[in-house]
């Protein structure tokens, strides 16, 4: 049985590490520490020039919920156009109305801007929508080809029951990509739901090369160690990839 492994990365170093570990596809973002935001065009270009596997780009204008202002919506559409022109494989996006439904009008504009040759993944805004089955049908109708979801739980393994129902309801019309807390220990259980695509970041910590360190002057995240960086671990990517190869599900 074929399984797809997507690794979420926010740097060129992580992109190369994920590819060397055997990732089938990348989701490229910035600021993975806060759940990911839109990467710069320069980072997109650097990654596209360096890797040979497909690259999907996360588009999210800021940290927080997915109910966007008109200005944020205009920016998202322009980011879709930029990604299209740069030649990425796909974009990963989502938006909600205040009542928890998908913002169909805005998402339709985004997909139209992307055009027929761009893959469109509905990101984890889906996990915050009011009705997952309504969201599934809306995503199909809009033309998304994939939904990234944890089954509306903090971790995908906790949402396994819903993931299975989504796979059943999707009936091949759209792919269900399981994400959040995915790792070697839960792959078999997730695969038993019928999910065939898996998303994880394979993060490992790395010390900053800074020797002189001024304390007590945080640059935006007072509770985080700003001299500790995280990169994708190719060994962990390879471990997950090899585990997927052994699954007879």
Distance between the termini: 6 Å
According to CATH, the homologous superfamily is: Copper homeostasis (CutC) domain
Examine the coordinates and then state which fold CATH places here, giving the name of the CATH topology.
TIM Barrel
Radius of gyration from the alpha-carbon trace, in angstroms:
18 Å
Alpha-beta classification: alpha/beta
Strand residue percentage? 15-25%
Total DSSP helices? 8
Which runs of at least 5 residues are low in confidence (pLDDT < 50)?
none
What fraction, in percent, of the residue positions are helical? 25-40%
Q: How many E-type strands?
A: 10
Main pleated sheet: 8 strands, parallel, barrel
Order of helices and strands: EHEHEHEHEHEHEHEEEH
The name of the CATH architecture is Alpha-Beta Barrel
- The number of domains is 1
């Amino acid at each position: 049985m074929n399984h797809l492994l997507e690794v979420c990365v926010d740097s060129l170093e992580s992109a190369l590490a994920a590819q060397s570990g055997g990732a089938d596809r990348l989701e490229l973002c910035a600021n993975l520490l806060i759940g990911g935001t839109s990467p710069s065009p320069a980072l997109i270009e650097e990654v596209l020039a360096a890797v040979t596997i497909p690259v999907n780009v996360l588009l999210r204008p800021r940290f927080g919920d997915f109910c966007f202002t008109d200005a944020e919506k205009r920016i998202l559409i322009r980011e879709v156009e930029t990604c299209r022109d740069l030649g990425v494989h796909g974009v990963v996006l989502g938006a909600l109305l205040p009542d928890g439904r998908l913002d169909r009008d805005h998402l339709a504009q985004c997909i139209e801007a992307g055009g027929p040759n761009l893959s469109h993944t509905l990101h984890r805004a889906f996990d915050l929508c009011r009705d997952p089955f309504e969201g599934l049908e809306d995503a199909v109708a809009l033309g998304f080809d994939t939904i990234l979801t944890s089954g509306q739980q903090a971790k995908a393994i906790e949402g396994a029951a819903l993931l299975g129902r989504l796979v059943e309801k999707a009936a091949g019309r759209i792919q269900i990509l399981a994400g959040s807390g995915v790792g070697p220990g839960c792959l078999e259980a997730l695969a038993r739901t019928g999910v065939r695509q898996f998303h994880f970041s394979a993060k490992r910590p790395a010390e900053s090369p800074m020797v002189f360190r001024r304390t007590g002057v945080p640059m935006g995240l007072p509770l985080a160690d700003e001299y500790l960086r995280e990169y994708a671990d190719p060994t962990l990517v390879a471990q997950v990839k090899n585990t997927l190869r052994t699954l007879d599900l």
